[in-house]
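User: My advisor, Dr. K., asked me to get a structural model of this assembly before our group meeting. I'm new to this, so sorry if the format is off. These are the inputs:
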Amino acid sequence: MDTTQRTEQQRSADRRRRELLEAADRVVLRDGPGASMNAIAAEAGITKPILYRHFGDKGGLYAALAKRHTDALLEALRAALDAPAERRERVEATLDTYLAAIEARPQVYRFLMHPSEGGPQSDQGFDVGLHSAPLLRRMGEELSKVIEERVDLGPDSAQLARVWGHGIVGMMHAAGDWWLGERPCSRAELVRSLADLLWGRLAAAGDKVGGPSF
Amino acid sequence: MDTTQRTEQQRSADRRRRELLEAADRVVLRDGPGASMNAIAAEAGITKPILYRHFGDKGGLYAALAKRHTDALLEALRAALDAPAERRERVEATLDTYLAAIEARPQVYRFLMHPSEGGPQSDQGFDVGLHSAPLLRRMGEELSKVIEERVDLGPDSAQLARVWGHGIVGMMHAAGDWWLGERPCSRAELVRSLADLLWGRLAAAGDKVGGPSF
DNA sequence: CTCACATGTTACTTGCGGTAACAGTAGCCT
DNA sequence: AGGCTACTGTTACCGCAAGTAACATGTGAG
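Assistant: The format is fine. Below is the predicted structure of the whole assembly, which you can bring to the meeting.
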């Protein structure tokens, strides 16, 4: 067969693909998630149909783009999660890693999580409806695995671990999103507060007495 | 003044508005969040510009639509949250209320949370990017208030309560979203697992020994 | 030289959000 | 009555973005 030739051509195609993704990245980071295919093609120095030949449709481009960032973030999280340290330390390190990532590149984060919120007249963005889930889901599954591997939860551990994995990721995500918007405290404080929550401080706290009237 | 006349006209306008919202509701529930303004107008028996006169733009229609459902859900949550019962009971009741709501009307839920995921060719949906936050945010703020009112957290209670409010809501949301998709267990089990997480079972559990190799 | 193939283009269709300009209708004011 | 305002409704259009068809061009293999 022509495998050797194929590989050569394939390599060139892959390089092109990577270049296109980087161009897309630049545009998305500059113009927000509302970036149009035309704009991306222009940034890459080519025209639309080529993008479509490479990625099928806009969702494909988005998926490829998201996968890059998602993979990178997941790797960082895995490192923090799998470190040989006390559980609380690991939890705090993981929370901090995530928050540091979204703090450092809020544009990327918003692109991954929140679809069209670009410019004033950009009402249609990437259809992240089906794609924003994956990041959260993948993080949830990853965390679930680690929990089940390393925490002794008795019977039903598999199910419990999955519920907790997704729940904790959701907590991290929502709190991070809110924090990124309002910046009501430092990152370290946020990490500490969330870890405290996970450590049962809600259950341990007493009822408030002398509260409002009743 | 012409207040009396105005009220009469206003009433008619309000009735129309409500009718339009109900039509929009039907269409969104049927066609998913990718419903077009034309489709909504047709369902209401009128044409597009009228929708725009009433709601300004698509975001306005969405916001009005979302507000109805959000208000209803928030009211139910408030009731569970403010009940005169033990804290754990209240937490479980609130979780269950939320999960029951999204279980009963997944279409509404997906519309509120996830934008365009409609039909196969519907790539642009409502720009929920800026509107899905509100529901989560409002729930988070609501919960924050209740936490601060009723739980004794010592100094920094305000900040801590807000972090926890948003975090817990995010946990509930993410776990609910995942659960709704996979249905890995009953609602009661999910509620119990999440409450256990909030009650510090993660911190209380021991390390797993004899785990994978290390 | 020519065939096959990959790369690139221009020019188009479709469909949606949003708007302008026009038409009919009900009540009030003098 | 007749006209003024204000609301409801329409058709017909613009702009823009996704996605596609058809055409052009370079390049290595036989």
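One thing worth pointing out at the meeting: Chain A has one domain: 7-202.

User: Perfect, thanks a lot.
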